[in-house]
Specification:
The protein has about 800 residues and is mostly beta strands. It has 1 helix and 61 strands. The strands form 14 sheets. It has a 5-stranded mixed sheet with strand order 1-3-8-5-6, with no helix packed on it. Strands 10-12-17-14-15 form a 5-stranded mixed sheet, with no helix packed on it. It has a 5-stranded mixed sheet with strand order 19-21-26-23-24, with no helix packed on it. The radius of gyration is 44 Å and the shape is rod-shaped. The N and C termini lie far apart (about 130 Å). The N terminus is likely disordered.
Length: about 800
């Protein structure tokens, strides 16, 4: 080798370095030993045996090809590898050197044979070296004992980077496919600084990334063909070495999981578990149909590990549907954009991708059966039943129920332990994937909606604290019209009895679900009040018709009431719950139904029921209480009612009088007493509802009811003469019951000798009217009504 300069005088060290650089630049193939052609991906070993020796290697390339050449010393000596690349016309493309390794990464500017020259930077030292070429556009061939070659989608490959080494990997892809390649060191104490580069088939660089312990490139395939992955070290001077793991995640192709690793097909609602190593990817898949709702959540299983969960979701066409990461959990929620196989990539997103640890992963998807992992909660919900479960960090519990279009739906979730970190979050999805509601509060959450179609609905229960990091136990209840209600043991709800004061207890995030039957036109009054003034319950009462229509909804700090008229015949739904801020209240309550058209039953120790003919009745109104009284009257009868608050009772008396057809005849409230005096508009059963009408129905106290000796039960009305006929009326019978009317001219005639003159049924109001001809030859006639 000759230098363009001859140094004949002493120079300083900087001049010596410049002189050495100029000397290196003029190396030509004629000055070096030919070593042969380089094979793409193959790691060669050469040897600079004498000072000043240079080795030449060649390879062919086409314009646009990506070229990466790396050389590294095999033994740790003073040898400083130098690498120079010459183009097909022997023009120097690039020259570089390093203390232990050196690299050239360029794009071929012309077609032809390129020359690589390896030497010692100072031309004074010797050493063995390794040399690797990574190039797009040609097949990759891996030397025995080395790693590289074709990658399998989802499979964790492993290898070792020596000083100055490159491992060259490939995979095929189609334009539009999503590509994720991640590399990580396998031993934390080794000196490898992982570097990963990705090149398209046309040589275009798609990404180059390096961090202290892991690296990743994400891209979208720009064209069809073979893609090149170059795995190497990026420590200072390329001197690092060590074992690594390398994983490809790619849409559009089958996923194959390495033995002992996690990934592959996901099952809807099943909690999968796995472990992320430093620089690892776990690749999961599921199938979906366009329009389905998709929720994927991942969370660390051990709070003290270093994993920062990251979850990515890709559509079959490679489009990214979401990418999310937080310190302890992550979630992507989306709608399936097309039909096919979706890709879920889970990994670590800590600084430099250096975290690791165990994780849990759950998919919630509409339109497919739900399968619950052993020991976990979820699956079919029962109407009115309080279900319970536990949310771990980053988990989802997935529940289902069936509904028919038009049904009213309420789903409420609440944490069971006030001190846990769970922030309840509940989502309800229709069978077609549409989100019907998503609500979250600190202690409880509720979604109320109307079923938009018939089929299976999806309920997703989870945590919505900052970073999805909360956990804890919860209760979950469904209230739904149109289906039977089943109450959990120890809970309250189910059929209501007219006039009966029911009691119950609302826990945080709970619903109590009650039912009653009514006919079109019936008057309905439902009142709820908290039983203990100091509890935190804000009573909320909702009444739904059989067809799912909301009849009424009211809430006040201490009591609430819905008063309405039944719009259809069937089973009505009453939902009793809390409406304090964030649904966080709880406490005991009382609940009473007052309804026309049905017998009244009064709870033991409570007031109400049939009036017995007495003139005065004493009673007490508790907060949220109704006292329900009944009586029968004939058309034209005088009705006189007075309600008086007794001394020291802080409530506002309120009288409501309902006719036999559910019509509200009178309503009056005031202090200290109120009165109704009127005539009965029709023969039938009358309902009297006494309660409090103070602000927010918060009053309570004792009262006195004064009436004009009204009674309930069977009674004959005064006959009415109409020409040659007499109209006979009876009230107080059971609707639909059969009666027989007997007649005699002598009241002392034994009953067995009385003549039956009519057999009929009581009408819907419990009354009947019969027209009987008057016989002027009979001075008197007597009648007896007998029920069989």
């Amino acid at each position: 080798m000759k230098s363009i300069l001859e140094i004949t005088s002493p120079i300083n060290s900087l001049a010596a370095m410049l002189c050495s650089l100029v000397a290196a630049i003029i190396l030509t193939p004629a000055d070096a030993r030919a070593q042969g052609a380089l094979t793409n991906g193959w790691t060669y070993q050469g040897n600079i045996a004498v000072p000043g020796q240079a080795d030449t290697w060649t390879f062919n390339a086409n314009k646009g090809d990506a070229i990466v050449l790396r050389v590294g010393e095999i033994f740790n000596t003073a040898f400083s590898p130098q690498i120079q690349l010459l183009n097909p016309t022997n023009g120097s493309v690039l020259l570089t050197s390093g203390a232990s390794a050196a690299e050239i990464a360029v794009t071929a500017t012309t077609n032809g044979t390129y020359t690589v020259i390896i030497s010692d930077n100072a031309n004074t030292h010797t050493n063995a070296y390794r040399l690797t070429l990574a190039k797009t556009g040609d097949p990759v061939v891996i030397a025995p004992g080395e790693e590289g070659g074709p990658m399998t989608n989802g499979f964790m490959h492993t290898g070792t980077i020596d000083v100055g080494g490159l491992d060259v990997w490939t995979f095929t892809a189609t334009a539009g496919q999503a590509l994720v390649v991640r590399m990580g060191q396998t031993v934390a104490t080794n000196t490898l600084t992982p570097q990963v580069r990705l090149y398209a088939p046309n040589g275009a660089p798609l990404g180059n990334n390096s961090f202290a312990s892991a690296a990743e490139v994400t891209a979208t395939a720009t064209t069809n063909g073979t893609y090149l992955v170059v795995a190497s070290d990026f420590s200072s001077g390329y001197i690092g070495s060590g074992g690594y793991r390398l994983t490809l995640a790619k849409t559009g192709d089958p996923v194959v999981i390495a033995p002992g690793e996690e990934g592959g097909p996901m099952t809807n609602a099943f909690m999968h578990t796995g472990t992320i190593e430093v620089g690892g990817l776990d690749v999961w898949t599921f199938t979906a149909t366009a329009g389905q709702a998709l929720v994927v959540r991942m969370g660390q299983t051990v709070p003290t590990d270093t994993l920062t969960p990251e979850v990515r979701l890709y559509a079959p066409n490679g489009a990214s549907l979401g990418d999310n990461s937080f310190a302890s959990a992550a979630e992507v929620a989306a709608t399936a954009t097309t039909t096919g196989t979706y890709l879920v990539v889970v990994d670590d997103f800590s600084s430099g991708y250096g975290g690791s640890g165990g994780y849990r992963l759950t998919l919630a998807k509409t339109g497919d059966p739900v399968v619950i992992a052993p020991g976990e909660e979820g699956g079919p919900m029962t109407n009115g039943f309080m279900h319970t479960g536990t949310i771990e960090v980053g988990s989802l519990d997935v529940w289902t129920f069936t509904a028919t279009a038009g049904q009213a739906l309420i789903v409420r979730m609440g944490r069971t332990v006030a001190t846990n970190t769970l922030t309840p979050d509940v989502r309800v999805y229709a069978p077609n994937g549409a989100l019907l509601g998503n609500v979250s509060f600190t202690t409880a959450a509720e979604v109320a909606a109307t079923a938009t179609g018939s089929g299976t609905y999806l309920v997703v229960a989870n945590d919505f604290s900052s970073g999805y990091g909360g956990s804890g136990d919860y209760r979950l209840t469904l209230a739904k019209t149109g289906d039977p209600v089943v109450i959990a043991p120890g809970e309250e709800g189910g059929p209501m009895t007219n006039g009966f004061m029911h009691t119950g207890n609302i826990e945080v995030g709970a619903l109590d679900v009650w039912t009653f039957t009514a006919n079109t036109g019936d008057a309905l009054v439902v009142r709820m009040g908290r039983a203990v003034a100091t509890n935190t319950l804000t009573p909320d009462v909702r009444v739904y018709a059989p067809n799912g229509t909301l009849v009424g909804n009211l809430s006040y700090p201490t009591a609430a009431e819905v008063a309405a008229t039944a719009t259809g015949s069937g089973t009505y739904l009453v939902v009793a719950t809390d409406f304090s801020s964030g649904y966080g209240g709880s406490g005991g309550y009382r609940l009473t139904l007052a309804k026309t058209g049905s017998p009244v039953v009064t709870a033991a120790g409570d007031e109400g029921g049939p009036l017995t003919g007495a003139g005065i009745y004493n009673g007490a109104i508790d907060v949220g209480d109704l006292d329900v009284w009944t009586f029968t009257a004939c058309a034209g009868d005088t009705i006189s009612l007075q309600m008086q608050a007794l001394t020291g009772s802080p409530f506002t008396p309120w009288i409501r009088l309902y006719g036999r057809d559910g019509t509200l005849l009178n309503t009056i409230a005031g202090t200290p007493s109120v009165q109704v005096v009127r005539s009965a508009p029709a023969t039938g059963n009358y309902l009297l509802v006494l309660t409090d009408d103070s602000s927010a129905y918060a009053g309570s106290g004792t009262y006195q009811l004064t009436v004009n000796k009204l009674t309930d039960g069977l009674k004959e009305c005064t006959p009415i003469l109409a020409g040659t006929n007499v109209l006979l009326s009876e009230v107080g019978g059971q609707s639909g019951a059969t009666f027989v009317l007997y007649s005699a001219t002598n009241v002392t005639t034994p009953l067995a000798s009385w003549n039956p003159i009519a057999t009929n049924l009581f009408d819907g109001f419990g009354t009947f009217t019969i027209t009987n001809a008057i016989n002027t030859n009979i001075p008197q006639q007597y009648f007896i009504l007998k029920l069989p």
